[in-house]
Amino acid sequence: MLSWKKLSRLKKEDIKKLQDKKLRYFLRHEIPYHPHYRKLFDKLKLKFDDIKSTDDLVKLPFSSKADIAPTKADSKRPREFILQPDKELLKQYAPKSKLIKFLFNKELVYYEYKPIHMHVTTGRTALPTPFLYSGQDLERLKETGRRMFDVFGFSKEDRGVNAFPYAPHLAFWQTYYGSIASETLSLPTGGGKIMGSEAIIKAIENLKASILISMPGYAYHLARKGAEEKKDFSNLKNIVFGGERVPAGLKDKLREVLAKTKCRNPKILSTYAFTEGKGAWAECDEGSGYHLYPDLEFIEVIDKNGDRVGEGEEGEVVYTALDWRGTVVLRYKTGDISKIYYDKCSCGRTVPRLDSTIERSSEIKEFRFSKIKGTLVNLNRFFALMSGHKSIDEWQVEIKKKRNDPYGVDELILYIAPRKKVDVAKLKMELKKIVREATEVTPDIIMMDKARLLDRLGMETELKEKRIVDSRPKK
Ligand SMILES: [Zn+2]
C-alpha cells in the first residue's frame, strides 16, 4: 500500500492509473469470491477481465440497498455480498504468489477474509443489514481513521472526546480506530445514553480536550450545557461532526454558545460516510470538501439517467470498493447528492474530493397527504431550516396519521423550543411560511419549553436524538 503522504499528493493521471490497476486486481482476484457479483457477471456474460479501467465500470449495472437488504422471504441476502473464498476458488483465482502462502498458512486466509466485526444499517423500508469486516479490513479502518486525523491536521498531542453513540455504526468505530491509529488520547464516551451528558462535559473540561467528535445536534447540546454550567472549554480547538449534514446557521449558533465556555474560534469540520463505504472521509478546512481515498474506493457521480456528470456537476454519489474484504459492493447507488472535484485542494492534497454539502437520501420520506398517491418530501431542508434558525433552540418533527387512522392521510407536526427573548407568535407564522415554501407542506406547530423538548428528543436516553419521528404504523 502506498503511504498516504505520497498517495494524497499523486498527480491526477497517476491516481487514474493506480485506480485502474486496483480495479483490475479486485475484479480478477477478489470479486470471483463474491456470490452476488459472480452470478451477475455470469448473467451478463461478462468476464472478470472485461473491465480494464474505471471507465469500463459502466458495463456493470448499479447496485442498491434493494439488492443487499434482507427480506422476509430471503433473510440471507446480505451473505451474498461477502467475499467467501474456498480452496477451489482460491486455486482458480488467487494470484500465484499469494496462493502458495495461503496453502501453507491458513491463518493468512483467515486474517484477510474471515469476518470478525460488523456494522448494521437500519432503515424504515429495509430490514437491518449487516456489513462485515475481516481482520485486514479493521487495519484498513485504522488506516482511514489515521488519514482522517491527518486531513484534520490533528497531532499526537491532541486529546479527543468521542461523543458518538456507542452502537454497531461506522461513526463510533471509525473515531475509535482513528484515535488508536493516530495515537491520540481519546475518551470513547458512547454519547448521552451511555456516559451521560453531565459526565461528558466534565470530561471535556478535565481532560482539557482539544477535539470533540459528535453528531451536530448533540455537540450543540453539550456546548449549551457547558455554557449553562460555566465550564471551561478553552482548550477545545476542533469540533468534528459526523452522521448528518451541517447547516451553516448551526455552526454560528454553536460558536456563540461555545464562546461562553471560553472556547474561541474553534474549527468546525465535517465528515462524510455511509455504512457500505466502510470508512469515513474528512474535510481539511470548513467547506473544503471530503478528501477521498483513491486506493480504497472509486467514486463516480451520476445524473438521473445513470450517466456520469462532469467535475463540479451535481449528481448521485456512486461507490465502488477497490480494496476491502468482508462485505463489498460495486457501483453502489448511495442516494446521496453531491459534486466531485479533481483539482488540487488548498491543503496541497490531490485526491478527489466530494463537495461539503451533501444531501442525504436517508432524510427523504414518502408522505401521503391525500388518499391517492405518495409525495416524496425532502426533510434535508428541515435540518437546515430548523437547526440553523437563530430563534430556535431545539426542534423535532413528527409525522403522524391524522386522528391515528392507519388508512388516513399523513400530517406533519413541528415541535419548537424557542430561544430566549423570541416573539413566539411571530416565529410561528414565519415557520409555517418557510416550511410550506421549502416542502409544500403546512405543519402544525407546537411550542414547548427546552426541557420537555429535550425529553422528546431523548438527548439523554436515546442512542441518537430523535429529530424526525415517524409515528405512522409500519406497513
Ligand atoms: Zn484539503
Task: Give a brief rundown of this model.
The chain has 475 residues and is α/β, with parallel strands linked by helices. 33% of the residues lie in helices and 20% in strands.
Strand content: 15-25%
- Assign the CATH topology of the largest domain: Rossmann fold
What is the total domain count? Answer: 2
CATH architecture of the largest domain: 3-Layer(aba) Sandwich
What is the makeup of the main sheet? 6 strands, mixed
What is the count of DSSP helices, taking H or I runs of 4+ residues? Answer: 15
How many E-type strands? 20
Report the CATH C-level class of the largest domain. Answer: Alpha Beta
Radius of gyration: 23 Å
Average pLDDT rating: 92
| Order of strands, widest sheet | 4-3-5-6-7-8
Shape: globular
Distance N to C terminus: 47 Å
Helix content: 25-40%
| Poorly predicted parts | none
